[in-house]
Amino acid sequence: MRILSAMTMRRGHLIGTRIVAVLFALLGLNAINELLDMISGSSDGPVTLAALQAVVGLTAIATAFGAWTGARWAPVIATVYGLIAGAMIVSLGPLLEMPAEERGGLLVGGAIVLGFALVCAGYLRWASRRVQPPAPTNPP
Fold first, then answer.
1. pTM for this predicted structure
2. Considering the domain boundaries, does residue 136 fall inside one?
């Protein structure tokens, strides 16, 4: 009975980490798509924004890979993603020279992205600690 509950617990964590991995993969692909639009000229923006999109895309894809494989560093990269993506959103006002009345939601948007990333990082850390390696067997 104990083996069955351990297997169910592990499968539940596996599904949760896979969901986080897919979410971060989609976020990474979106950022890379924005970058490619800027490079191709179909979307205009400053070089700084293109560089931030590249870093955001790469950190999101790295987080997705780490979450999918169960890497211990995945929560750290998820936190880095949240910090960079949140800062990028907050900096959109000055980067795009938006009027002050249009910048109202940028701070809230950046905080939401950071919060999402921190919740995902916390879950990944929790899930990696819950999955325990098999107990070593003692030689006879």
1. 0.83
2. no
